[in-house]
Amino acid sequence: MAIYEERIYEIQPGKLSEYLQRYKELGYEVQTQHLGRPIGYFVSEIGELNLVVQLRRYESHADRDRRRAGMEADPAWIHYRMVNSLQVSQKNRILISTEFCLLNDEE
After folding, report:
1. Residue 71 phi/psi, 5° resolution?
2. Contacts within 8 Å (CB) and 24+ apart, 100-104
3. What CATH number is given to the structural domain containing 52?
4. Domain range for 56
5. According to the model, what pLDDT value does residue 104 have?
6. Secondary structure (3-state) at 71
7. 86 C-beta neighbours (distance < 10 Å), count
8. What per-residue confidence (pLDDT) applies to 107?
9. Rounded to an integer, what distance in angstroms lies between the CA atom of residue 20 and that of residue 40?
């Protein structure tokens, strides 16, 4: 059964555009090489601001662990994390879809 990971990053006020530009230039390609394309990549517009929300799909916890370990060891990812340290906080959740989830139609 597939699992989904939701990651919510709070970015320093006034730095969201800079964070997204650095991710586009340095982070997206290397992250996608290891983790695949995100199902969703969002920013908050109303309510709690300065948030980036990612949603990714993995085949299992072991698949997630393997992919993330490869990414964390990649020198390009290590460099990106050093130059894009604009995060204030991070929250992660592992989600399991229910029978009502539209994403099940893609499996």
Report:
1. -65, -45
2. 103/4, 103/39, 103/57
3. 3.30.70.100
4. 3-106
5. 74
6. helix
7. 19
8. 54
9. 14
Structural domains counted in the chain: 1
Q: Give yes or no for a contact between 23 and 107, defined as CB atoms under 8 angstroms apart.
A: no
Structure tokens that stand for 9 in this block: 């990053």
Alpha carbon distance, N-terminus to C-terminus of the chain:
10
Closest CA to 3 of 77, 65, 52, 72: 65
Q: Model confidence over 49-103: pLDDT tens digits?
A: 999 999 999 999 999 999 999 999 999 999 999 988 899 999 999 999 888 888 7
Q: Which residues, listed in sequence order, are joined to residue 95 by a DSSP beta bridge?
A: 4
Rounded distance between C-alpha atoms, residue 15 and residue 41, angstroms:
17
Six-digit token string for 83: 């130059």
